[in-house]
Amino acid sequence: QVQLVESGGGLVQPGESLKLSCAASGITLRANTVGWYRQAAGSERELVASITAGGATDYADSVKGRFSVSKDRHKNVVYLQMNSLQPEDTAIYYCFSFRKWGQGTQVTVSS
Fold first, then answer.
1. pLDDT band at residue 30, thresholds of 50, 70 and 90?
2. Which of 50, 85, 93, 101 falls 20 to 30 Å from 77 in CA-CA distance?
C-alpha cells in the first residue's frame, strides 16, 4: 500500500527557510514523478514544484528562485527546500505521487 508522509512544516518569520520532507512507503519515489502542492485557506490546491524520475524539475512562477525540489539518493525521500519565505507562502503543503496524497504539513510565515 502506497503511503506518503510529509514533515518539516512550522512557523517561521518572513525571510526564513524551511525544508519539507516527503517520505514514502510502498513506492520508490526515485522512479516516479513527485509533486509538491500547497493549499492556502480559502484557495484551491496549487502545484508548487515537481521532479520527474529523471530528475527534471519545474516550479510555479511564484516560487522560482526561492524553492528547490530534490530527491534523496539513498533514502526514499523527496525534499522541498524553501528559502526567503513570505506570508503568501502560508499554506498546507502536500506531496503527491503515484496517484496518492500525503496528509500535508502546515507552513505558516508570519512576523
1. confident
2. 85
Alpha-carbon span 11 to 75, nearest angstrom: 26
Question: In the structure grid, which three cell numbers stand for residue 103, read together?
Answer: 496528509
Assign residue 63 a region (left: φ > 0; alpha: ψ between -120 and 50; beta: otherwise). Answer: alpha
Which of helix, strand or coil describes residue 88? Answer: helix
Q: DSSP letters along 16-61, please?
A: --EEEEEEEESS-GGGS-EEEEEE-TTS--EEEEEE-TT--EEE-T
Q: ∠ at Cα 97 (92, 102), nearest 5°?
A: 35
Q: Nine-digit cell at 4?
A: 506518503
Count of beta carbons in the 10 Å neighbourhood of residue 17: 12
- For residue range 50-85, list pLDDT tens digits in order: 999 999 999 999 999 999 999 998 899 999 999 999
Spatial separation of the C-alpha atoms in residues 52 and 7, rounded to whole Å: 21
